[in-house]
Amino acid sequence: MASPSEGTGFICDENGSVLPTVENFYKFCAERKLMGVKCKACGALLWPPRGICPKCFSYNVEWIEFKGRGKLLTYTIIHFPPSQFQALAPYAVGIMKLTEGPQLPGMIRNLKLEDLRIGMDLEVDFETTVPKEWPRWPRYFFKPAT
Predict the structure, then answer these.
(1) Is 48 helix (H, G, I), strand (E, B) or coil?
(2) pTM
(3) Cβ–Cβ contacts within 10 Å for residue 39, how many?
(4) CA distance 67 to 143
(5) How many other C-beta atoms lie within 10 A of the C-beta of residue 138?
(6) CA distance 105 to 37
(7) Which of 66, 61, 48 is nearest to 13 (CA)?
(8) 107 exposed, middle or buried (CB, 10 Å; 0-12, 13-18, 19+)?
(9) Which residues pair with 144 in a beta bridge?
(10) Which residues, including other chains, have CB under 8 Å from residue 69's CB and lie 6 or more apart?
């Protein structure tokens, strides 16, 4: 299991193990780590993280770090965003299938929108500065793989 840095405020159980919560997921993002959960009973890889496996219903799960690479499955271009994202419009959001299997949604950056292609190789990067307004957590995003 990945160990958090000192003083980062992870939510832990009585034994000091970092609990598989979405809040802890974003705390790992602040450390530039893309984390998920692996079921120790059936081997399923889970994202978003959760404390029970939806495949076999086991509570025996552990944190794992994903490589952060995969392929773009689908995307859309946002032209009329919520007020918090107006300065970014137009921008792309998509779903990336990680090489390990799980799929995750995210914003796609660092390319011209017309260069987006289904099946293109992407990698995860992090914006670790916490915004002053919602959403108040470190963010991950996708960019073309190098």
Answers:
(1) coil
(2) 0.86
(3) 21
(4) 14
(5) 19
(6) 17
(7) 61
(8) middle
(9) 122
(10) 98, 99, 121, 122, 123, 124, 145
> Which tokens is 12 given?
């832990």
Q: 3-state DSSP call for residue 83?
A: helix
Q: What is the Cα–Cα distance from 36 to 46, expressed in whole angstroms?
A: 6
Residue with tokens 């660092």: 110
Encode pLDDT of 14-44 as tens digits.
988 999 999 999 999 989 999 999 999 999 9
Q: What is the pLDDT of residues 107-137, one digit of tens each?
A: 999 999 999 999 999 999 998 776 677 666 7
**Do the beta carbons of residue 89 and residue 105 sit within 8 Å?**
no
Q: Please state, in angstroms and rounded to a whole number, the distance separating the CA atoms of residues 24 and 9.
A: 9
Q: Using CA atoms of 36, 137, 135, 85 in order, give the dihedral in degrees to the nearest 10.
A: -90
Peptide bond into 102 cis (omega under 30): no
CB atoms within 10 A of CB 9: 10
